[in-house]
Specification:
Structural class: alpha/beta
Distance between the termini: 42 Å
Radius of gyration: 27 Å
Keywords: Membrane, Oxidoreductase, Transmembrane, Transmembrane helix
GO molecular function: superoxide-generating NAD(P)H oxidase activity
Pfam family, one: Ferric_reduct
Number of strands: 12
Helix content: 40-55%
Subcellular location: Membrane
Number of domains: 4
Membrane topology: Multi-pass membrane protein
Length: 540
Amino acid sequence: MSQWQKLAPESGMAGRGRHAWFRVKSALAKRPLLRFQSWLPFELARLRWSELLFLCALVLVVSAIIASEATRYLSRRGCENAVKAKSRAECAVLVHRVKKFGKHLGGLLHTLVAITLLPVSRHSLLIYATGNSFDKLVKWHRWLGRAVVFVALTHGLSFFPSWARGAELWSKLGKPKNVAGLVAMAFLLVIYFSSMRYVRRAAYAWFWNLHVLAVPAFLVSLFWHYEPGAFAAKAAVPLLLLTIDKLWRWWKAARDVRSLRSTRLIGRNTAKLELEWSKDSVGNAAKDHHDCSWVYLNIPCISRWHSHPFSLCDVGVDQECADNLPKSSTNKVVVYVKAATGGNSQSWSHQLVALAASLHAASLDGALAYVDGPHGSLELPFEPATYDAVFFCAGGIGVTPLIPLLQRLVHSPLARPALSFVWCVRDVELVLEFADVLRACASWSHEVRIMVYLTAEVDDTHRLLPRLGNDVSLFVGQRAHLAQELDALIHRVGHQGSRPLLAALTCGPKSMVFDLTQAVSARDRAGMCSAHIHQEAFSY
């Protein structure tokens, strides 16, 4: 029986309709631009068909608004038809027409700003409408933000040639509404430059602080600059939803305070945090927990104001919670925090790892921790256990969101897919941390193949081999050949004339993700499999 028949088992007209719906759902989850990812922006190349259709619709709507509201002013005849009779003489001057064009972009700018606020909420309506989580929708917030910057610059700069031609530049700039516009533009540029990927990654605290300060200032300045009533009407609902979301998450985190049960250093730059959860919290987590879930973690003794996202890696807890609640009044949930090599030594993660490595690490035990979440969802159209094969590819600490899913699939009561788990890692201590789980998963079934590529040359592999056992393949000083491993998995599940349904999940450095997505996309286009890809990443 093919996987399509498993997903749509009904017969007759209803069965054919269900069968067709699953094919449509599968097709919309494809990523057609991956073949061009060598020269396209990475985020654009990863868009699914459903997202591309939405992007095209959004571009068409914005283009239609510009065409109906502003473009007509660029031509002399269109300008003369749109303005009053006494102003038609000015339409003969190009800079005047450009000013008219830019002026009528103001309404579009209000609309874009309002829409940009929608994906920011952790419990946005878009999350429930699309089934995606905040970390998957935040790219739309960034792209809409860039559109806001472009339209705002076009709007503002279009006035300067006309003012300069009339020798009234400084008098116009001194008007209160124009001053408010300049202030709004300044704050918008601060937001834009502080949100660049390099700044976010290297100085997250600066990014967060500037966002908190500059965004309200930008909105207030924009409100006073142009048609306050119209802007308030457009932004009221997104701002209200954002405010309710913030208050709700603050109240929930303050009401359900956790404590750090233990803190332990793994290797040189990774800390393992065990958070204590009450019985009720564990029960709710078991009920609402999604694969590849993550939480915002705030530890006041390190930073009172900054929260950071970390994957839940409660390996060994999920199954217990799924079966029944633990008898004790508390349980633990685990996150792993890695301080980036060569990063800012004053960053949140570096401070935490430094404290865990010091003689005072025990002082963290029992410390308060505020947890917002869990959030997160898989970008797969179907439940992972229903695929013919699932291919995992993790790099370093990127194993933490994937290994709980591997464990769940191994113990799945459904028909278990063929599983391949490739982990490329440099830190021996990190391998030892998960060695027991990997050995248990690999020994559970012959359908599970686990390969650990220890990319650093080490001499103490004698510690690893007994812990990993005979069922886990260990390669030392080698790079993973992802294409070969992928072909081997497809060959295991492929039959004569069949096209297996494959899920590929990855979390790791960009180069590794690039290689995997390139290989999966090539095999999907060649008809070797029907593949869906999920990348776990905190790129915001």
